[in-house]
Amino acid sequence: MFEFTAKDKYRKIREGTDEVSFSYLANYVSVDLDKRELAIAVDDHFIDIEEKLDEDEKPEDWEHPLLPQAGMVVTSPVGEQLIEFCEADIEQHMKFTLSMMSIFSKEEKKTEQKDQYLHYYDNYEYFAGIAEDVMRSNLYVHIFPPLIYKRSLEMCKAYFLYLRSLQKEYRQLLDFCFNADFYKEELAGITAASRFTLYCEVAPVAPIRSMNISFRFLRSGFGNASMPVRDKQAYEEFKKNPAKKLQIQKREPNAFEQRFNINPIQTELARIMPVPIVSSYRCQSLDEILYLEFEKMLELDMQIKRCKNCNRYFILKGNYQTEYCDRIPDGETQNCQAISATAKYAQKVKDNPALAIFNKSYKRYHARLKVGSVKPDAFKKWKYEAVMMRDRCLDEEVTVEEFTAWIDGYFG
Ligand SMILES: [Zn+2]
Question: How many A from CA of 313 to the centre of ligand 1?
Answer without folding.
Answer: 8
